[in-house]
Design brief:
With 350 residues, the chain is α/β, with parallel strands linked by helices. Helices cover 26% and strands 30% of the residues. The chain has 9 helices and 20 strands. It has a 13-stranded mixed β-sheet with strand order 2-1-6-5-7-8-9-10-11-15-14-13-12. Strands 18-19-20 form a 3-stranded mixed β-sheet, sandwiched between helices. The protein has a two-stranded antiparallel ribbon with strand order 3-4.
Length: 350
Amino acid sequence: MTPEVHPEFQLNGRSLDYNGLMTVAYSYVKEGELWERQVGDFILNWLDDFSYHTVFTSGSTGKPKEFRLEKQHMINSARMTGERFRIVAGMDVLGCLPLSYIAGKLMMVRAIELGWHIDLVAPSKNPLEKLTKRYDFTALTAYQVKHSLNFLYKSRKTIIGGGPVDKAMVDSLKGRHTRAYHTYGMTETSTHIGVRELYPTYEEYFTALPGIKVRLNAADCLVVDAPDLADKTVVTNDLAVVKDDKLFKILGRTDDVIITGGVKIHPEALSDKLSGFIEQRFFITAESEKDLGQQVVIYIEGDSFDTDAAFAKAKLDRFEKPRKVIFVDKFNETHTGKIDRKTIVLKHAK
């Protein structure tokens, strides 16, 4: 199939039909910077006559996996997002995620399919800072949000994806004059399948989008039935709590659970406790320990500081408190901008 270009679609202020968009894409590939070449490559692939588009998972916990997503599923996802957030043709949106990333790809698909007026800027930690327009809709990573707090008013509605959102970030959204949402999804489902509002109303549970149902398997991992987005049921590695077939909460990945001294520690819950007391990026992991079985380890980006004080303020119990603290000058990142935990651990663990 060859996707259509909505008659109201605009890219960086220019109205473009199929031929015009193809011309811009060729120009990006030939003359653009790296992020622009990614844009051009995606547009050329999106507008070809194949029925699928090849994507890769983030690779944050292992080797990136290749998937063929049906273009119709991606279009269905785009329509669901437009309806959920009431972003219609002619509205102004900002694209500031790399198009090597499923979320960046879907922003472009939504714009082309729904007739949005999309402005593209180079992906950065604070893409809103120098912009003068106020946008109707923007998608950001949690890392970008952290560095863009003073400029979030430039986006009326902001979705935050790519990983967990901690309590400190939720608190930091107060008074920022944006309606903020946290999304949950995966590459296999063409980005998000669930949304929860963070501000001004706080929702603890994600709500699955229309036509999508969730449940738990025997291992208490989330199972997603999304016939409009995936041909097969998606079984995740995410431990979850499910209220009904629409409401769910993520506890963390099953392969991340740390069992130390017989006590189960969920790294995401522990990170949430620490988020208000550690300003740098960090992540929790584990390593073998002869007496406890495993011990909690924390990797922190940047200069060293008094971590014991932070642990005390967070009121960690004796099993939660990291027994090893490793400072790393700068975290490695995957091609999608996520922390490359596997590479960092392999490089620095002793």
